[in-house]
Amino acid sequence: MTHTGAVLIVGELVVDFTLAQRGEKCKLRLGGIAHAARGLWAAGLEFAVAAVCPEYLVDEAKNYLAKCGCKEFVWLGNVVGAPNVIVIGDGTEVSHQGYEDLMRDKKVVKLRDPVPQLEAYQKVVVFPGRFDVDKLANAFSLDARFAFDIAYDLNDLSSLEGFRGRVQAIIISTSSSLFVRLGNDDIGALIAEVKTLTPDVLLLKENRGGSRLFDLHNGGVEEIPATLGKTVNSVGVGDVYTAVMVGLSHKGWTESAWRGCQAATAYSQSTFPDDIKRDVQRDFLLPLNTLQALGGTALSWHDRPSYSIYLAGPDLSYVEKQELDRAADSLSYHNFRVRRPIQENGELKRPASEGELRRAYHMDCLLLKECA
Length: 372
Fold this sequence. Notes:
The chain is α/β, with parallel strands linked by helices. It has two domains: 288 residues, Ribokinase (UDP-N-acetylmuramoyl-L-alanine:D-glutamate ligase, 3-Layer(aba) Sandwich); 67 residues, no CATH class. Helix content is 31%, strand content 21%. This is Sugar or nucleoside kinase, ribokinase family.
């Protein structure tokens, strides 16, 4: 069956369980590539799904995704030994989200043999997981074009060698283990590695600071700022960005990346699908030049360590200070340089002499100037 123009989403389906915290109720919903599917539905784009998931999820996923407009559901493989349930400690990603993949050490993915044929699709976005991506390469037509969103289960690009020459886009976030290994200090090493697959573009999603789209043919860089707003959800937001960008790639990578960012922003501000779709459709009415002129907040990952943040508070060894520690962890997670004056300059002994007080005052002033 041919679905002209439909985006095929390939990856794992999981169950997301977000723990209750700070007055918020717990939340249970279909996750994994279901987030990308919701994003495409909200953007009004046709899509199909090729999923790896436990057998118990297949019928439920088929029914749910059909209601989101899914044109076809293909079960690629089974997950045994684990339920594919992700427990999420912090759904807003103020700092580490605390993902726990239940029984992950026992998890085994068994792709169906033979692998179902996916030749009807020419526009494919793959979210690599615990399955062997390379085994899927021959399931597609030779004119299929791929985008890969590299997250947590891919530490190098060697497993994508079978797709060389057919890759249009590589998408990666600053929380990816591949980024931490290759691009955390210098983006050049990551770009060099990505170029081995000969894609058109690399999209780097930078936590809370916007994103950068690298044109790997002409060396151009498009900076796409973040939009300030209240974040109620960070789970699956990057997947929505990727899926919508790929779905609209016929408009050109620059516009499609901006539109993907719009969809991701809406997804971060609600967990109610109808509200997300309403907001995305409204936002898409803005012409691209108007959207670009509105601007936003952009602070690249690699520039952030140059900003020293003075964290004032009772940072004393004999005080319970979980809130202060959480604030410091959050800033460090987003790659800022946190300055904790008491830890850097030392605690005053009691009683302190006038000379010790003056020295502490002087050291504190110097630190404040460094953070100005």
